[in-house]
Amino acid sequence: AAPPPPGLPLALCRPFSNNKILVELDESSGVATMKFKSPPVNSLSLDFITEFCIGLEKLENNRECRGVIFTSAVPNIFSSGLDITEMCGKSMEHYAEFWRAVQEMWLRLYGSNMVTVAAVNGSSPAGGCLIALTCDYRIMVENPKFIIGLNEAQLGIVAPFWFKDTFVNTVGHRVAERSLQLGSLHSAAEALRLGIVDELVPEVKLQEKAAAVMAQWLALPDHARQLTKSMMRKAVLDRLVAHREEDVQNFVNFISKESIQKSLRMYMEMLKKKKS
Amino acid sequence: AAPPPPGLPLALCRPFSNNKILVELDESSGVATMKFKSPPVNSLSLDFITEFCIGLEKLENNRECRGVIFTSAVPNIFSSGLDITEMCGKSMEHYAEFWRAVQEMWLRLYGSNMVTVAAVNGSSPAGGCLIALTCDYRIMVENPKFIIGLNEAQLGIVAPFWFKDTFVNTVGHRVAERSLQLGSLHSAAEALRLGIVDELVPEVKLQEKAAAVMAQWLALPDHARQLTKSMMRKAVLDRLVAHREEDVQNFVNFISKESIQKSLRMYMEMLKKKKS
Amino acid sequence: AAPPPPGLPLALCRPFSNNKILVELDESSGVATMKFKSPPVNSLSLDFITEFCIGLEKLENNRECRGVIFTSAVPNIFSSGLDITEMCGKSMEHYAEFWRAVQEMWLRLYGSNMVTVAAVNGSSPAGGCLIALTCDYRIMVENPKFIIGLNEAQLGIVAPFWFKDTFVNTVGHRVAERSLQLGSLHSAAEALRLGIVDELVPEVKLQEKAAAVMAQWLALPDHARQLTKSMMRKAVLDRLVAHREEDVQNFVNFISKESIQKSLRMYMEMLKKKKS
After folding, report:
1. Is pTM beyond 0.80 here?
2. Which keywords appear in this protein's UniProt record, sorted alphabetically (chains A, B, C) (predicted)?
3. I need a labelling partner for B181 at 20 to 30 A (CA). Which of A97, A115, A178, B65 fits?
4. Which ipTM did the prediction report?
């Protein structure tokens, strides 16, 4: 793969657990798979995100690797999104560190020079949906139980502007406006209809389909494809780069409000009860 | 409802007739209805708009009110749009005052913190369509006689950029470009297909459906929903706020041209003949 | 037609062959036809583009002419796009001159005050597709062999930002992102589904349909229609005007790279073999 786009900082260099994502590179095809294996729900903890960014950076810098498929090793869930425990009852410094990592993940994914394909084999709310939205192509398993969407509003929080920009670039302004305000979680069929995903397949066909789509995208000359991708996404990427620290401060101020902390605690209680 | 967004001026404080809109607030649900009852066609005269803005501001400042449904008490017409008599044969000062009121109406509607639902129970050309477009959701009666669209070009005039921005945010650039240039008035079925409205219902189901949609939107926490709505609409709202006086001057200069005045007089003659 | 938009330079004043485009003006309807007759594939050579710009300027300045239909006199091809021989093995000065002509063509077409209708009666890759995209309305012959799209990436080159802007304004961000990265050439049926063209007709009905569509657009008052068109397209037109020389330099630097020259030579070899 080509060198990463300039202006993006290096991967965070803090110690982290290194077993939440399985990375496999098929050197014959130049296609890597990043398989999320952080049960129970592949939540995007600081550890997960750090491992994700470092893994992605390694692939980006590996000349043998031209594309990545993202999928889950946990049944029924692609990723449940940002780990709420990272946003609840922690210090301002922790919130800031966490948010910078989330920004970093998005900047690397949305700006990746590699072809990125989401093979969505389970539900994918909030940050899980964001990972799919940053990809070049989204294939979802046509299971009526699997849902996808940016449901932040349901939790009493607000998707940041760059989640919104990514969503608008994918589904247009009107679908984004309605779906974000309602915090909608869409069935796979509805996600296809709205353009949130590009294609549905039976679960048994998912890996085969992802490989076929990847081959189609890799048939193009890398250089022309990368410049075209950058042309399409640069305005939105630049917007976060220009407002990154401001966005961190907004997040920290918002999330540390007592009213928001209370909502999140209630939401976590609800999740715990559901489980037991 | 939350306080109105900063930067919007207070409602105009001129004397006006106060019987063109019926406002009812159901305190149990927190939902108000603004019912247009200005026969024959609910045209948006300066009086109507002033009453509309003051009514809306009162609801916005009323903590008991979280949502508004807009509908018509006049059969077969939602609103015929801006009152042409306000734009024809009057003074420059009058044109300016009228246009500031139209801007004010749009700024309050498109930027409202409340959930806004248009229950479009009749035809809705020009400014009538604009009111619908500013809402969070549009339900239209599936009557083949009812039409909707921004048909300004048919009259020889041009929709202002903020009508256009609202339209583009709803239906996308291409549909807006074609529909605005042709000054199209679309049937309800076509309006649904193009995304001008979100749903069609039989007339007898309209109020029930509007209440159900409102309940769905009110199920979300107000604060998160309002911040999300603002994030989606801020760029377009800010644009008019930044160019408000310039836009007034453009309107006054354009509308007071003799060629435009002549078109409007001819159009009014045609309407009068149609009636008799 | 009204005078051309200010800020656009006069047509290039170099000698050129004057037989690549047949221009006919029907004075009764005010509708001109520009028929491309530059076999074998109506490629957009510097000569073709110069003739095109001068022809278009004459119509724009002719008060009898209110609309133009673009179509091809060469069977099975609308236009094959930019002439690769103009971009291969020539001097930097030539590349710059050629690119300024391409910009000029786009500025005049996308900003035309006349109603413009593309009657696409053959395949229309790259620059051929661009001509269609700049029009107010696109009708394509429903022949399964005819394809259309901005396939630059297939050749290892990148569509300039103003091709991209025109495409996004027509089909939205997501369709453009995918189609441009894959350099897709779409069948007529798919082009209709994606919004690249507005309508399909059997070949025998094409001219009749184009005339009917033109009559529909000409039914609107010119002044209101032109101001509306300008409002929709101004942002994108202004962007190239503001970055015109920078865009020329980018093109010249890119196209004169040895790697790009090599791709283009290979592509031309392939085309020659195909022919023989």
Report:
1. yes
2. Acetylation, Fatty acid metabolism, Isomerase, Lipid metabolism, Mitochondrion, Transit peptide
3. A178
4. 0.92
